[in-house]
Target: Protease
Amino acid sequence: MKNQALLLLICLMAGSLITSCRKDNKQDNNEKAAISNDVLAQIKAKGFSTQHVHPVNGGYLVEGDIFLSTNDLSKKATYNKVRVAKTEQYSTNNLVSALPRTITVRVVNLGSAFVQGTDLAIQRYNALGLRIQFRRITSGTADMTIQGFNEGPSGGYITLGSSGFPTDAGDPFNLIQMNTNPAAYGSSPNVQYVGSVIQHEMGHCIGMRHTDYMDRSYSCGGDPVDEGDGGVGAVYLPGTPSDPDPDSWMLSCSNGGNRTFNSNDIIALNYLYQ
Model:
C-alpha cells in the first residue's frame, strides 16, 4: 500500500519478535558497519533478508519493519505458509489454539479515534464467522491490550504501530502499540485509517505475515526485497487468482487510507480459523 506523499510500512512479527510499522526502508551505512557477520548469518538463517538491517535497543530491525531480539536470533524459526496465487499469505508456526475462542481486547489511554478504530476492526473480523471472535472490554485484564506511545520521526522513519505473533502456548500476542504522535496519523486521526492499521496488527497477533513478503516493492515501491519464507514449502489454495493481489489487508505498506479483507484474505483466514 503506497501513499503518493508517504510510504507507510505496516508491520509484523512474532511471539517475542516485535514488529513496528514504519515509513521508507533506508539504511545508514554506519549502522550496517556496526552489525557483525555472525548476526547477519543468524538473520539469514531465520529466513529474513539481510538488506536494510538496523541495530535497535534489544535487537535488530530487518526489512524495514520487523524487530528481532538478540535472544530470538539464536532460536530456530519455522513458518507455515498459505499460498494465494502469485501473492502469498502465510502464517507463523504458532497459531491461536483452543478454538472456538473469544479474544478480549482492551484499549487503554487512547483517544476516541483509536477506540472507534478498534471497534471497526473487531466488527470486520467477527463478520467473517471464524472460530476466533473478538470482544472489546473496558476493565479488567484483556487477552490483547491496545495502548499508545508517542514517537516522532527519526532518521527518515516513523513508527505507526507494533505487534507480535502468537505464543508457543497458542495464545494471541497480547499487545498492540499505536503511535499517537501527530506525524503518524495527524492531529485528528481518521477512524477508518486507524482501524485498518489495528486490523492489520491484529492479523499479526493471530499469526499472519505480510501478503507480499516475496517482493515488498509491490506495495512499498523501491527495490525488491524478499522477506524470506523460513525455508518451508507452501500450501496452494485452489481457485485463487493467478494475478497480483493489490488490496490485501496484510500488504507490507499502507496508503494511509481505509483497507479491509479482500476475497483472498478471507480464503486465507478461513483456511486457518474456520
Summary: The two ends are 27 Å apart (CA to CA). The chain has eight helices and 14 strands. The chain has a mean pLDDT of 74. The chain has one domain: 8-273.
